[in-house]
Batch of 3 targets.
Target 1
Amino acid sequence: MTSTAVIIPGDGIGPEITEATLRVLDAAGAEVEWVERQAGVAAMEAGDAVLPESTLEAIRAHKVALKGPCTTPVGKGFRSVNVQLRKKFDLYAAVRPVRNLPGIDTPFDDVDIVVIRENTEGLYAGVENEITDGVVASMKVATEKGCTRVARWAFDYAKTRGRKKVTVFHKANIMKLSDGMLLRCAEEVHAEEFPEIEYENTIIDAACMRMVQRPSQFDVLLLENLYGDVVSDLCAGLVGGLGVIPGANFGDDGAIFEAVHGSAPDIAGQNVANPLALMMSGVMLLNYLADTRGEEQNRQAAQRIKVAYDQALTDGKKTRDLAGTLNTDEFADAVIERL
Ligand code: NAI
C-alpha cells in the first residue's frame, strides 16, 4: 500500500533541494504519494497566510511531512513557521543524527552522536514582554510534563537503537529552576525506567569544549530547546557542515522531517545547495513509515538511498560546500546512478 505524506518545499534553497530529494526517493522505489502544500514566505507570496490553514489540515490528515526550510525574517510581527508547526502538532522531540560520512575529510573520523532537542518549551515558548521603555524580558518555560516526556523519548531512543549513554547539557548552576527541571526529570526517568542506559550531565559551556576536543565521548545528547538548536549546528561542523545533517520532529501522533539548515538565502536560486541533508531527512521519513505502518518497501528504498549517497561521496561526487564541484541536480543524478 502506498502511504501519503505532505511535502512543503519552503523558501530559499527549499524548492531546489526538495525537487532533487523527491527525484531520488522516487528513483529508489519509495512508495509515497506526496501532497504538496506551501508554508513560509512562499505561501505569503502566493497571497496566503505564512502558515496556511490548508497546510495545517493536510498535516493533520496525513500525519507525516517532509519540509524544506522556511525563512523567518528578523524583527517584529513574524512568528517562525518552524516553531509554530512544532507547537501546533506538539512535535516535542527533535532528533538530529550526526555521523561521519565517507569521502568527507574532517578533523575527527569517529563522530556518531544523536542530538535530541526539546522542541516546544524553553525560550522558544515566545513569551516576551517589554516591561518598560528600554527593558525587555523573555521567559524560559520548562514544565515537568515537557521535560519528562522528552527525557523518556531520549532514553527510549537510546534503548531501542542500542545506544549506551544519554548526556544532558545544561546550565542548572545558573538557571536552577528551568534547567534544573530538565535535569531532575531526566534523572528520575533514568533511575525509574532506564537504569541500564548510562546517564551523565554536564554544564554546557564545558561540554562544548569537550565536544570539539573529543566528540567520540558523546553518544545521545538531551538538550533544552535553545541549547539543542545551537549544539546541533556545532555538531554539524564536526562532520562537514549543515549540508549533511538530517532532522526529524517527533510527536506522539506524527512527525515532520526537515534538514537542520535554514533557507540559505545567500545561495538560493543558484542550483548549488547541497540536497543531501533533506535527502537524509527523507530517508528518516521512509524508515518512520516502515516502523509505524509496516511498509517494508519504504525501508528497502531508504537503505538503497543510503548506500547510493555513501557511494557517491566515496567517488568524490560532492557539492561545493563539501569542496566538490557538483550542482544540486548533478548530485541528485550521481545518487540516482548508484541506486
Ligand atoms: P542557514 O542554515 O540557512 O545558512 C547558514 C550557512 O550555511 C549559509 O552560508 C548557507 O549558504 C549554508 N548552507 C545552509 N544549508 C546549506 C546547504 N544545504 N548546502 C550548502 N550550503 C548550505 O542559516 P541562516 O542563514 O542562519 O538562516 C537563513 C534563514 O533560514 C533564516 O530566515 C532562518 O530563520 C531560517 N531557518 C529555517 C530553518 C528551518 O526551516 N527549519 C532552520 C534554520 C534557519
Note: The two ends are 22 Å apart (CA to CA).
Target 2
Amino acid sequence: MNALRTPLDILRQTYGYDAFRGQQGAVIDAAMAGRDALVLMPTGAGKSVCYQIPMIARPGVGIVISPLIALMQDQVDALREQGVAADFLNSSLPPEHQRAVLERLREQRTQLLYIAPERLLQPRTLEELSTCRIALIAIDEAHCVSQWGHDFRQDYLGLGILAEHFPGVPRMALTATADERTREEIVERLHLDDPARFVASFDRPNIRYRVTPKLDPRRQIEHFLLSHDGEAGIIYCMSRKKVEATAEWLTTTGRTALPYHAGLPAEMRSAHQKRFLRDEGVIMVATIAFGMGIDKPDVRFVVHLDLPKSIESYYQETGRAGRDGLPAETLLLFGLQDVVRLRQMVDESESDETRKQEERRKLDALLGWCEITRCRRRALLSYFGEQPDADCGNCDICLEPPETFDATVAAQKLLSCVFRTGQRFGAAHVIDVLRGSDTDKISQHGHNQLSTFGIGGELDVKGWRSVLRQLLVQGYVEADASRFGALVLTPRARPLLRGDEKLVLRRDAFAPKGTKSARSRAGGIDRNIPEEDRSLWDALRECRRQLASAAGVPPYVIFHDSTLLEMLRQRPGSRTELLGLTGVGQAKLERFGDAFLEVILTGQAPVPDGDEDPGDP
Ligand code: ADP
Ligand code: ZN
C-alpha cells in the first residue's frame, strides 16, 4: 500500500465501494484538510468510512475513541480482513497484548488504533501518543458527552483536553443521535475548533415502520415473525422478567432466542452478544441495555413489545435494523396499559420537576405518534426537523391506511361514565359499567343503577379500550397514579361532553392484516430469493459461513448479504468481475475471491473440513 492513494482509491480498493455516499466525500475532504468536524448521520449511513479513510490516507496513526469496548475486537477484525493495520487498546486486553500493541504503534506499523476513553486519558497513554504522529482523532458516539442524553459517560467529559494535548491534529466527533442542544454541547465540551458541520438526513428508507395496538402480543409476534424466518432481529421489552419469559417462549417455538439485560452475569451477556453477532438468525430479546454501537449490518427486524421512552429512543433502537441498506421491518406494540404505566413512571421518577416535564413532553410526543393516521415516516422526520414532501409508501399507514370513525358519541358515553362512577375507578370497571356487565364490584357499588349502565353495547371491550387509550393520549382523561390508575376527567373533556366538539378516532384493526400481497413485500430477504436461485444462494451462504468460522469472525465480516445478492444476480465469472461488486475490495478478493468464484461456477458449497468453531458447545 503506498501513501499516495486518494480517498476515492481507498474506498474502491480497500472497501470495494464505487462511490461515496451522501456527505462522506465532503467529511473526508474536511479531515484531509486538517479541519475539525462534527458529523451527524443516522445509523447505517456510513460514518466509519468518514474517519477511517482519512486515517489511512494521512500520514500517522488514526485514533478512534469509542466507549464500546466489547465491540472493538470485531471492528478491528473487520478492518484487518480489508488489509488495514488496525489495533485496539482497552482494559479487556491482557498486558502482554497491550505491550505488543504499543510496540507496533512505536514502530509506526499501526494505521488505526481503537481506544477506550478511560484508557486514552491515562497519563502514560497520552505521553506515549504524544511521541507519535497522529493523522486524525475520531470521537465516536460523541453524544456521550451530553449530560442530558441517556448515554452520558463521565470519561467523555475528559476528552476536551485532547485539543491542548494534540494541537494541530484534526478531530472529528460523530454521532447518530443529537438534537440541536446536544450538538452544541458536543462542540463545546470537546473543544472543537470551528468545526465543519455535517448533518445528514435522518431518513432510513429501507426500514418499514409498523405500529399496532397490543392485543395478543404473542400471537402478534408469531405472525410478524412468519415473514422473518431464519433472520436476525431484536425484540425489546421493558422488564427483565419479560425479557426472560419471552426468550423462553420463543425458544419453545423452535427459534434461537437469547435473553439480554443488565441483571444477567457479564459473561452470559457477552456470550449472548457474541452469538447474536456471529451466528445467523439469532433473535436477541433484550431490555434497552442492549444495542448501543452494535454494528451488525444484517439485523432484519426490531420489535418493541413495550413502548420506548421517547421518539428519540425509538428511532435509535429501530435504527439498529437494516444497516446494510436491505429491507428491514419494525413493529411496535402499544396498549392502554403502556400509556398508563409509562405516564406513572414519569410521575414517580426521581427527576426534578423541569426534567419530569421534559420527559412528559417526550412521552406525549411518542404516544401521539403512535396514534397518528398519516404517514409515520413523514411525522418522524418532521419531529427531527426535516420536511419530506411525499408519503413514504413504506409504513403501516401508507400500506394499509387505517379507518377512522366519528367517535363523538362513544367518547361522550365513556367520559360521562367516568364522571358518574365518581372518577374513582380504573379502565376495567368503567368499561364493565358501560357494557352492562354483571360483576360483584358493580352490584357492590350500585353502579347498575347509573344512567350510564349498559349504554355501551355498540363496542366490545377491545373497542372501548381503544377509545379510552386514544382519549388518554389526547388528554381528555388522565389515569391518577396515586389512586391505582383511577380515571379522572381533564378540562379538555368539557366541550366534548357538552357537544361543542367533534371527535374522530382511528378504528384499530383487531385481527392482524394477513393479506398476502402486503406481507410478501415485507422483509424476508431469504424468502424473496427466486426458487431457481435458491440452491446457489444457500451454497454462497454456506461458503461464507465456513470462511467466517475458519477466520473466527462474524459472517458479515467476510461479505455482507448485499454482496452475496449481487453475486447471485450477476454471476461473476472472473476475479475482475468479482472486484466490480459492491463490498469486494483488494484484500478480500485475494483471500476469499476464488472460494466464491468456485461456488458460482459449480453451484456447490465447499465441503466443510469438520474443524468448526470449537467455541460454542
Ligand atoms: P454507521 O457507523 O453510520 O452506522 P457504518 O459505518 O457501519 O454506518 O456503515 C453502514 C454500512 O454501509 C456498512 O455496511 C458499510 O460498509 C456500508 N457503506 C459505507 N459507506 C459506503 C459506500 N460509500 N458505499 C457502499 N456501502 C457503504
Ligand atoms: Zn408512510
Note: Residues 17, 20-21, 24, 41, 43-49, 295, 297, 323-324, 560, 582 surround adenosine-5'-diphosphate (ligand 1) (CB under 6 Å).
Target 3
Amino acid sequence: MSDDQYKARMQRKKAHIDTRIEAANIDRGIIVLLTGNGKGKSSSALGMVCRALGYSMKVAIAKFLKGEQESGEDVFLARQPNVQTVFMKTGFTWDTQDKAYDTKMAVETWEKAQSYLADESIDLVVLDELTYMLNYKYLDQQQILTALKNRPVNQHVVITGRAASEGLIELADTVSEIKDIKHAFSANIKAQKGIDL
Ligand code: ATP
Ligand code: MG
C-alpha cells in the first residue's frame, strides 16, 4: 500500500468513526451483563467499580452466592467510603443443600439490592452472580426485571453470572459472553490470591 493509499484509508476510517461518535448522543444509565463459562465476569465488574470510583461516583454491590472464602476485593472495597455492599450470607448451594434457607438468604439480599436500584444517589449497582438466583428460582425474574426497568434513569448496573436468562439478555444494553478456552484450575493449580480471589 502506498503512503497516499494508506492516508486515504485512514481518512475514510476516521470519517466513519466520527459519524458513529456523533450518532452516539444519548446519555443515560445502562445495564451491562457479563455471562459465559470463562473466567473474568466478576473481576470485570470490579474493574468498572474502579473506574466509577475514579470519578468519585457512588457504588453499591450485592454479591449473591458468596463463597466461604473472603476475596481480595472485599477487603479493598470495605476501605472505600463511596462503596456499600451486601453479601448473601450463604455459600454455594451445593454446600448448604437447603433450598428453603438459600431462598430466604437470596430474598434478603435481593431486598437490599432493590433498595440500591431505587436510590438516586447511587451511580453504579453491581449484582454479582445474580443469574443463578433466577436459574435456581430463588428469586422471581419478573420482579427483578421490573426493579431494573424502574431504576433511576442515570444509574448503571452490572450483572454477572453464567447462563444468563433470555429476560436479562433482552433487557441489558451491553451483553458479553466470556468463553472458557482454558482455566488453570483444570491443570490442578489452586485458586490464586490476586487473580482468582
Ligand atoms: P472472576 O471472579 O475471576 O472474574 P468469574 O466471575 O468469571 O471469575 P465465577 O463463575 O464467578 O467466574 O467463578 C469465580 C471463581 O471461579 C474464580 O476463582 C475463577 O477463577 C474461577 N473460575 C471461573 N471460571 C472458571 C472455569 N472455567 N474453570 C475453573 N474455574 C473457574
Ligand atoms: Mg463471578
Note: The chain has a mean pLDDT of 93.
